[in-house]
Amino acid sequence: MSDNRDQQPRRDFLLRSLAGAVGASAASLPLAASAAPAAAPAPDAPPGYLWLRPDEQVFVEALVNHMCPADGLTPDGVTLGLAVFYDRALGGNWGQGDRLYLQGPFKQGSANQGYQLGMTPAQLFRAGTEGLADYCRATHGKPFDRLSPAEREALLKGLQSGQVALPNGVPSATYFAQLLQMFYEAMFADPIYGGNQGKQGWKLVGYPGVNTANKLNIVKYANKPYRPEPAGIADLS
pLDDT at residue 46 above 90? Predict the structure, then answer.
């Protein structure tokens, strides 16, 4: 996809997505929007996956590559480390629900009441992914990673709208909201959390990263092009 006309809609989508992810309320994005990112892995953390099961690894890699295919703007989602971000976040404090109240009672809430399930983010992911695998086998006769791009797109839209009912009863719209919010975070979080490798997400939208001179640069570059090389937490450590 080397034509800039083809790439511009994707850039605009990611810019809107970033703005929406930052400003979203806990009601519209019930889990990840209201929680802190997972703690950064230790410098000597082993490479590869730490929490995801093999079948979940395959699913997440197919998911992030579908949502972020390689083109003239970025590599594919796996190369960007997005799948590793999912793994570290779900296996870390956020995924294990360290900041969630889980004593119940858990009743059906209204949309403005936010997340109401008695599951941690990791439990929701695992149960939702198991339900999705069963749905794919029953409906398509093959797993998510072997679906065509059009089949994947239709399935994800069905999850988002709640029209796809997962056989184990996990609310599909809530499950999808978590998957999507984690994708946004993986694209734009600091690279120490696993995603946004090479700061490609930041470069895509012109975000300078952890730049201590941002306040001065707002004045210095007023009404002028400003494309600095973004800096991450590790660059300033």
Answer: no
Query: Would residue 186 count as lying in a domain?
Result: yes
Residue 29 lies in a domain: yes
Q: Is the predicted pLDDT of residue 22 greater than 70, yes or no?
A: no
Instruction: Please give the Cα distance from 187 to 113 (Å, whole number).
Output: 27
Given the structure tokens 């890699």, which residue do they identify? 61
Question: Is the sign of the CA dihedral 26, 33, 181, 87 positive or negative?
Answer: negative
Angstrom distance (rounded) from CA 19 to CA 94: 22
Judge whether residue 206 has pLDDT over 60: yes
User: 27: alpha, beta or left, given left = phi > 0 and alpha = psi -120 to 50?
Assistant: alpha
Distance CA(19)–CA(172), nearest Å, equals 24
In the predicted model, is pLDDT for residue 38 greater than 80? Answer: no
Which residue bears the tokens 């004045």?
219
E strands in the chain: none
Q: Is residue 225 part of a domain?
A: no
Q: Structurally, how many domains does the chain consist of? A: 1
Rounded Cα–Cα distance for residues 129 and 25 (Å): 24
